[in-house]
Design goal:
With 360 residues, the protein is mainly α. It is built from 17 helices and two strands. It has two domains: 187 residues, Rhomboid-like fold; 107 residues, no CATH class. Strands 1-2 form a two-stranded antiparallel ribbon. It is elongated, with a radius of gyration of 26 Å. About 19% of the residues have low confidence. It holds the Pfam family UBA.
Length: 360
């Protein structure tokens, strides 16, 4: 499973930065100084009869509507975790391939609509066909962790992304059609129906030619792979994830350590929440989730309780056997887990950081 939480900002995500800058700059250009060129980005269901394939292609890379730009930009930023997970080159390959598949599905949908004389307005413009296929790995790979409840409905860290998607889909029927084709293309790519992931392939000779012209020369001869993955070469800064299924984490050692830390922290947080729910009202909380006497902004301001905490520090802290067992199951030794819990005052998050720092 892929951790939703991660470092903020654009570290290790050059493609995400390029997409966001491109979306904002093109919107400003074609809204103010180049407004008279907006007709080049509009197409409808008669795209084949009116020979509007060029307009259909251009509409997939430019935003002309401000709400669509804002909502899609938020989704692109939140989906940057997949660029860190797979690497920039494979991330771009996935986006381009699913966009092409979504465009083909749109043409099929236009044919069905024309056959039954169902008319729609102009299709929306923007990166819908590139972004919305990422909802498929987002739903399947990112774990669902309930943070709170509103009127009995659990709210997770993924809720905001789903709300943004539903807001965009519910705006117009034309937008709903484009989004549905994009999500369906993500499903087909994920399931590799009819070998779609290998269908867009080129001979090794052609792939090595593109790789030599656009990026650094490979140390080993390239194998047959995706068309877009070959053509993009290695001109991006971040490399793609390894092909081996035995390394399901980040593309570099640093990313792997950070993602492992995120996953362990998430497991500890879930265990703490579950322990919190099992406690009765009025029952004193165990040290594993009790932060009242801890340092920092969560410390207790009562001087009497602070004095008691200082007296307790003189004694050897009792280690939570449950937390020790959890660390042992994660691969740490029993002695190291106990020492980390004593040093961190039975704080599982701090203990996790100490254990991972010892490994680096």
């Amino acid at each position: 499973m892929l951790a939703l939480a991660g470092p903020a900002g654009f570290y290790g995500t050059p493609v995400t930065k390029v997409l966001l800058c491109h979306a904002v700059i093109t919107y400003l250009l074609f809204t103010f100084p180049l407004q008279h060129f907006q007709h080049l980005f509009h197409y409808n269901q008669d795209v084949l009869q009116k020979q509007q394939l060029k307009r259909m292609f251009l509409s997939k890379i430019v935003f002309l509507d401000l709400p669509d730009l804002m909502f899609t930009s938020l989704l692109i930023y939140n989906f940057r975790i997949f660029e860190r997970r797979f690497g920039s080159r494979k991330f771009v390959s996935h986006m381009i391939a699913t966009a092409v598949m979504a465009s083909i599905l749109e043409l099929v949908a236009f044919g069905v609509l024309n056959r039954y004389n169902i008319r729609l307005a102009d299709m929306p413009t923007g990166l819908f066909s590139c972004v919305f296929p990422l909802y498929v790995p987002f739903y399947l790979s990112v774990p669902r962790v309930a943070l709170t409840r509103i009127m009995g409905v659990p709210v997770t860290g993924k809720t905001l992304n789903y709300i943004l998607g539903l807001q965009m889909v519910s705006s117009e029927v034309e937008t709903m059609l484009v989004v549905l084709c994009a999500v369906l293309s993500g499903i087909l790519w994920r399931a590799n129906v009819l070998g779609l992931q290998k269908l867009l392939s080129v001979p090794p000779l052609v792939g090595s030619l593109f790789d030599h012209c656009l990026g650094r020369r490979r140390s080993v001869p390239p194998r047959g792979g995706g068309l877009f993955e070959h053509c993009l070469g290695r001109y991006l800064e971040a490399a793609s994830a390894p092909r081996s299924s035995q390394l399901p984490m980040g593309a570099t050692l640093e990313l792997q350590q950070r993602e492992r830390l995120d996953r362990i922290e998430q497991q500890m947080m879930m265990s703490a929440l579950q322990a919190n729910r099992r406690m009765n009202i009025g029952r004193p909380q165990p040290l594993v989730v009790n932060l009242a006497n801890g340092p920092g902004i969560f410390g207790n301001a009562n001087p009497n309780q602070n004095g008691e905490a200082q007296q307790d520090d003189a004694n050897v802290l009792a280690v939570s056997e449950e937390q020790v067992q959890r660390f042992v199951e994660m691969g740490f030794s029993d002695s190291r887990a106990r020492q980390a819990l004593r040093t961190s005052n039975n704080n599982p998050r701090l203990a996790t950081n100490l254990l991972l720092q010892d490994m680096s």
